[in-house]
């Protein structure tokens, strides 16, 4: 997205600071909103042991997300000593550069508003349930936390090189919809699936989607769907694979990929490690 369109998005952008942060104003959430949060939480937490990675499942009880909409300051007090990340409250989607700048400085932007009850099963834009429940637990995993900061730094570079589209695919297929191989089978570590009642079981169990071994350049060439379940998921062996594959400077990769057409979301290539 571009900075010019941001004010048309859902959320109150009228009282933000120059870095797009706002106050959470926790006292402003209604009982009905806390209740909706608890129902969203109850559905997802029941799915987690079977479908979420161990790192997610193990940290959840320590975060007390089930009591109602969490307070940013309480979670920040736990997150700071764990991985030195902090949550910042934001009105909603941010311009790419602003988003990357927060990540590069170990600040994770979390949307303050909660979806409407009609959106219980599906929401287009990230709300506080997606951002908090989906993203925050993995910020406690040290290697993943370092990966996300490196992603933010890479984003600032990609912006200068006109390569945001390629880098955004990496975020999508890892941070939002990534799968990880574990001794117990495939598990999700992606916030898009972890926070979705329908897609979390689907991404692990359904025979329909492709599941392909992580391949950085392949991912940066692959389109994605934003309004249906994913047609392809990419699978990492562990978080170190993710961190190490993305450590080099991407400039030569962008040059290599710039002249090539993208792959469709459903494509399987002869070179893919299909799981
Ligand atoms: N803003 N709040 C918020 N959350 C996101 O996930 C987000 C964003 N702005 C831009 C963005 N994502 C993506 O375009 C980048 O990951 C490429
Ligand atoms: Fe997200």
Automatic annotation (TrEMBL):
Alphabetically ordered keywords of this record: Iron, Metal-binding, Monooxygenase, Oxidoreductase, Phenylalanine catabolism
Matching PROSITE patterns: BH4_AAA_HYDROXYL_1 (PS00367), BH4_AAA_HYDROXYL_2 (PS51410)
Necessary cofactors: Fe(2+)
UniProt KW Isomerase keyword: no
Sites where the protein binds Fe cation: 130, 135, 176
Annotated ranges, domain Biopterin-dependent aromatic amino acid hydroxylase family profile: 1-275
The protein's name: Phenylalanine-4-hydroxylase
Biological classification of the source: Bacteria, Pseudomonadati, Pseudomonadota, Betaproteobacteria, Nitrosomonadales
């Amino acid at each position: 997205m571009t900075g010019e369109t941001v004010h048309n998005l859902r959320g109150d952008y009228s009282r933000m600071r120059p870095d797009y942060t706002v106050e959470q104003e926790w006292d402003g959430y209604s009982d009905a909103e806390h209740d909706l949060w608890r129902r969203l939480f109850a559905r997802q937490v029941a799915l987690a042991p079977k479908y979420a990675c161990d790192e997610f499942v193990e940290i959840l009880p320590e975060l007390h997300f089930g009591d109602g909409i969490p307070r940013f300051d309480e979670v920040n007090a736990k997150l700071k000593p764990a991985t030195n990340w902090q949550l910042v409250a934001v009105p909603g989607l941010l311009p790419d550069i602003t988003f990357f700048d927060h990540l590069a400085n170990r600040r994770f932007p979390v949307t303050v508003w909660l979806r409407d009850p009609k959106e219980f099963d599906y929401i287009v834009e990230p709300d506080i349930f997606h951002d908090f429940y989906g993203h925050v637990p993995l910020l406690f995993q040290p290697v993943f936390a370092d990966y996300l900061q490196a992603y933010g730094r890479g984003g600032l570079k990609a912006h200068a090189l006109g390569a945001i589209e390629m880098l955004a695919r990496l975020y999508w297929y890892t941070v939002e919809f990534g799968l990880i191989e574990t001794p117990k089978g495939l598990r999700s570590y992606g916030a898009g699936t972890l926070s979705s009642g329908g897609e979390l079981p689907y991404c692990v169990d359904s025979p329909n989607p492709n599941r392909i071994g992580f391949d950085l350049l392949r991912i940066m060439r692959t389109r994605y769907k934003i309004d249906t379940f994913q047609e392809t998921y990419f699978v990492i062996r562990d978080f170190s694979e993710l961190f190490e594959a993305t450590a080099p400077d991407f400039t030569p990769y962008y040059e290599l990929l710039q002249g090539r057409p993208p792959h469709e979301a459903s494509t399987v290539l002869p070179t893919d490690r299909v799981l």
